[in-house]
Design goal:
Blueprint (H helix, E strand, L loop, with lengths): L1 E5 L3 H12 L5 E5 L3 H11 L2 E2 L3 H5 L5 E4 L6 H10 L4 E4 L6 H14 L3 E4 L6 H11 L6 E9 L9 H4 L2 H17 L3 E9 L4 H5 L5 E8 L4 E7 L7 E8 L3 E4 L25 H4 L1 H15 L9 H20 L3 E2 H5 L3
Parallel strand pairs: 1-2, 1-4, 2-3, 4-5, 5-6, 7-10
Antiparallel strand pairs: 7-11, 8-9, 8-13, 9-10, 11-12
Length: 335
Amino acid sequence: MRIGLLGTGRIGAFHAAALRRHPDVTSLVVTDADPRRAAEVAAHTGAEAVATPADALAAGVDAVVIAAATAAHAELLGAAARAGLPVFCEKPVAVDLAGTRAALAEVAAAGIVLQMGFMRRFDAGYVAAREAVRAGRLGRLHTVRTATSDPAPPPAAYLPLSGGLYRDCVIHDVDALRWVTGREVTEVYAAGSDAGPPMFRAAGDVDTAAALLTLDDGTLATATATRVNGAGYDVRMELAGERDQIAVGLDERTPLTSVEPGVPPRDGKPWQGFLERFAPAYEAELAAFVRVVRGELANPCDGAAALAALHVVEACELSRRERRPVRVAEIAAAA
């Protein structure tokens, strides 16, 4: 299989290496807005570097992986759809709700496969949690807690392009919440704090966020996120039911220290970033995409799933700004 990779930044370079390791990927064509960066990735992976995305799409590829800057996703997705090529796209589809809906309409009209990059669906812990919930091991769920904590803020220039903390980070927790529980979020009540580094206030963003999410069966979930967790990279999900409770992301590398007497300190070095923590999941989702393209696997995460998660975080942003509960249906029904 010959694959075109559009974007060779941090995640794109990781994907390039993973794709070249895959036994069914015979060749890889890469391109980037920075030609030198594309050339470097090509040199390291044995890929072919081309000048533009159009060149990549015209290079006889069987499928496309989009890992470019967020603002370019919708345009590149549209180009791939018009070329009739199956696409794996890192989230988000577009920078806003209108752009997302327009891009997904183009995908639907073209009839192509679109697999979205929500890698937590391929993490062993989240998979085990989903299986436990679906098998009824926990009994009726009453509480779910999610947390995404980055060890250090991104560059200031990234913030205006990120969509904000809810759209950039919490959307992963929302997708995982929907996927693990099999339930929909019906209402949110969210808040955010910009009390940290001043660059967040300058960008109109927050460095820490929290939301109370009500699911359609009455289960309550909380989602917290921060860009300033100096202890390390911390991504967890806790699920509590009437019979049992379990945790995802709780291991010797979780940057969490107990102060209870007699509890030994953790042995492992804390996770330092998402590529390290979720490396196996990233590789697994690309392997799944190859199988989807070959017709061996149903699409594990389509555009509809991405849109549903976006509706929830858009509701969170509205709730944060207006300081009120927001029904997700209010966002989904908006033109």
